[in-house]
UniProtKB/TrEMBL annotation:
Keywords: Hydrogen ion transport, Ion transport, Membrane, Transmembrane, Transmembrane helix, Transport. Belongs to the V-ATPase 116 kDa subunit family. Essential component of the vacuolar proton pump (V-ATPase), a multimeric enzyme that catalyzes the translocation of protons across the membranes. Required for assembly and activity of the V-ATPase. This is V-type proton ATPase subunit a. GO terms for cellular component: proton-transporting V-type ATPase, V0 domain; vacuolar proton-transporting V-type ATPase complex. The chain crosses the membrane at residues 104-127, 147-166, 254-273, 285-305, 341-359. InterPro entries: V-ATPase_116kDa_su (IPR002490). GO terms for molecular function: ATPase binding; proton-transporting ATPase activity, rotational mechanism. Pfam families: V_ATPase_I. GO terms for biological process: vacuolar acidification. It is a multi-pass membrane protein. Its main location: membrane. It is found in: Membrane.
Length: 377
């Protein structure tokens, strides 16, 4: 095996017959030049051949390959990004941003304190025994988990935060900040009911069935403060739990998704500015930002306005009518005054951006290529 490895390496070298030496050409990171030189010197000394290896920089017009320095903490996130595509030389490395965004977006979907604690315990076990496990053959599945041990730790930590926000521990509600802020109201008088004489109901913690049995209605008083952090525990186990949670998480996912896409498009601007690629900035970055934010960014604004004003408008209805019936506005989709005219303006500008994204850049690049071919001939 050792001889095969030697011959395999020698086959990668070229022979200089006049100087009777072997020549190897390779890309070396700038920070590693001294390390390579020291390694060659030690190899020559250990071989006891009396000949020294020389490291000679070569001038070339070839484009350098992409190399990112990683460690045991960042290598997992770099592998995730490289699975989708490797950035060009000197481009922004998305893996640096992924270290924060990937665990948080996972936690938004996974948020549960109980399950997060199990993930943290598993990751802590792998980290505590990493020196021992690194020397073993763990197999494909365990090796993948071991390589992502720091990522799993972050996933668990972020999921604890979102789990507290969702108020879930193994899908059960928690009352860390006290009981629910909803109260049992008397429909006739409009006042909150006092605690009944029987046990099982208290002003700060009660069951809806007890309130209804007592002849009241569950309402949230405008004079009271909401639950301190996260979702009020009264929502868990109710008939309206699924519609409420689905609506909340779907709208929150739209907000986070659009912000994430805007963040990604901004990275392309940094690359364009570095390479002085004005064509990509004008024909890609600007129309992409306008198209994304004039449609989906507008939807995000409607979501925030609806949350802040308590509007009962159906945003599904708003977005469908925005494309099928531009300019028309009914009560079901009304969020603010002048909404119909604004939607027509946003839609027209967005449609104009589509041909700008598709046609100018390819045609201009084709002309540049034809001009370069004529100059060569």
């Amino acid at each position: 095996r050792k001889e095969k490895a030697v011959f395999h390496t020698l086959n990668k070298l070229s022979v200089d017959v006049t100087s009777k030496v072997l020549i190897a050409e390779a890309w070396v990171p700038g920070y590693a030049k001294q390390m390579v030189q020291d390694t060659l010197v030690r190899a020559s000394q250990n071989a006891s051949t009396g000949m020294a290896a020389v490291l000679q920089p070569l001038a070339t017009k070839e484009k350098a390959p992409t190399h990112f320095r990683t460690n045991k903490y960042t290598s997992c996130f770099q592998s995730i990004v490289d699975a989708y595509g490797i950035a060009r030389y000197r481009e922004v490395n998305p893996a640096v941003l992924t270290i924060m965004t990937f665990p948080f977006l996972f936690a938004v979907m996974f948020g549960d304190v109980g399950h997060a604690v199990l993930m943290i315990a598993f990751a802590a076990l792998l980290i505590a025994k990493e020196k021992q496990l690194a020397k073993q053959d763990l197999g494909d599945m365990v090796e993948m988990l071991f390589g992502g041990r720091y990522c799993i730790m972050l996933l668990g930590l972020f999921s604890v935060y979102t789990g507290v926000m969702y108020n879930e521990f193994f899908s059960m509600p928690m009352q860390i900040f006290g009981g629910t802020r909803f109260r049992c109201w008397q429909p006739r008088t409009g006042h909150a009911l006092t605690a009944p004489s029987y046990s099982g109901w208290a002003p700060d913690s009660f069951d809806i069935r007890d309130c209804q049995h007592w002849g009241g209605e569950v309402k949230f008083p405008y004079t009271s403060r909401p639950y301190v952090f996260g979702i009020d525990p009264i929502w868990h186990g109710r008939k309206t739990e699924l519609p409420y949670f689905n609506s909340l998480k779907m709208k929150m996912s739209i907000l986070l998704g659009v912000i994430h896409m805007d963040f990604g498009i901004m990275n392309s601007l940094y690359n364009n500015l570095y390479y002085r690629d004005t064509l990509s900035t004008l024909c890609e970055f600007i129309p992409q930002m306008i198209f994304l934010n004039f449609i989906f960014g507008y939807l995000c604004i409607l979501i925030v306005v609806k949350w802040c004003t308590g509007s009962v408008a159906d945003l599904y209805h708003v977005m469908i009518n925005m494309f099928l019936s531009p300019g028309t506005m009914d009560v079901q989709g009304q969020v603010f005054e002048g909404q119909g005219g604004l939607q027509v303006f946003l839609l027209l500008i967005s449609f104009v951006m589509v041909p700008i994204m598709l046609f100018p850049k390819p045609l201009l690049l084709k002309k540049r290529w034809e001009k370069a071919q004529r100059e060569k001939s």
